[in-house]
Design goal:
- There is one protein chain.
- The chain has 132 residues and is an alpha+beta fold.
- The protein is built from 2 helices and 8 strands, in the order βββαββββαβ.
- The two termini are 32 Å apart.
C-alpha cells in the first residue's frame, strides 16, 4: 500500500509490483546473494579513490528520486554520480557497505559499470548474481 497526499487529504493508492522494480546492478568481487562482498570488500576509501580518478564522475549531494508524487531532486549524503550518460542525467553509484549499487541500470550504464569494474578487480552482477 502506498499513501499519498491528494492535495486535501492522505489517500491510499494501489501500485503494481512493476512500480517498485529496479533494474539493479552491483559492482562486487564476490557474490551478491551469498554474503555480498565480505571476503574482498570494496571499501569506502578505495571507492573514493577510484571515483576521483574518473573524469566522468563527480560527487553530488542532490539526486533525482522517484517519489509517489513523481520525480524530485532530494538532498542526500555525498554520492558518486556518473555524468557521462547519453541522457545527460547524472547516474548515482551508491557505495553500500562493500559493494557498489546502481538502480535503473540501462545498457550504457552497464557498459560504464563494466569498464569501472576492471579498475577495481570486480565484476558486474544483478541481484541474482547473474553477470551483466
Amino acid at each position: 500500500m502506498v499513501y499519498e497526499w491528494d492535495g486535501e487529504q492522505v489517500v491510499d493508492g494501489e501500485r503494481g509490483p512493476e512500480a517498485f522494480e529496479w533494474n539493479q546492478r552491483f559492482l562486487t568481487r564476490g557474490t551478491w546473494a551469498s554474503g555480498m562482498n565480505a571476503r574482498a570488500p570494496i571499501r569506502a576509501e578505495e571507492w573514493a579513490q577510484a571515483v576521483a580518478a574518473q573524469p566522468d564522475f563527480e560527487m553530488m549531494t542532490r539526486i533525482e528520486a522517484t517519489l509517489p508524487s513523481g520525480a524530485r531532486w532530494i538532498t542526500c549524503p555525498p554520492v558518486a554520480c556518473w555524468s557521462g550518460h547519453t541522457s545527460g542525467r547524472p547516474i548515482p553509484f551508491f557505495h553500500d557497505r562493500d559493494v557498489i549499487e546502481v538502480r535503473d541500470a540501462d545498457e550504457p550504464t552497464i557498459r560504464r559499470m563494466v569498464a569501472l569494474a576492471s579498475t577495481l578487480a570486480a565484476k558486474v552482477v544483478d541481484d541474482d548474481d547473474q553477470p551483466a
